[in-house]
Inverse folding.
């Protein structure tokens, strides 16, 4: 199952601190989470970003929650907002809609 997360970093945190948190999670092997494969991970100036990830061989809802919770556990308040949604390709959405 694929998920898309749209997020905004906390603007009161220095970019260096956020980079340290990301590096620490990756060095610990916590990000990406177990059974997760990052398909895309982008950040824009101003701290808005998107992550697209796929979950295989596990309870996808639990993995998505674990992917979310690891960041504020490492640094509370790292996100100003974070929204994660299950996703399908646009052509699959059209197919489903037209059934």
């Amino acid at each position: 199952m694929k998920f898309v997360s749209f997020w905004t970093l906390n603007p009161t945190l220095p970019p260096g601190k956020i980079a340290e948190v990301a590096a620490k999670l990756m060095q610990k092997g916590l990000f990406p989470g177990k059974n997760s494969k990052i398909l895309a991970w982008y950040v824009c100036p101003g701290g808005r970003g998107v992550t697209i990830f796929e979950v295989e061989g596990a309870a996808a809802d639990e993995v998505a929650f674990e992917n979310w919770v690891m960041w504020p556990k490492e640094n509370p308040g790292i996100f100003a907002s974070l929204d994660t949604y299950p996703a399908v390709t646009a052509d699959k959405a059209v197919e489903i809609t037209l059934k």
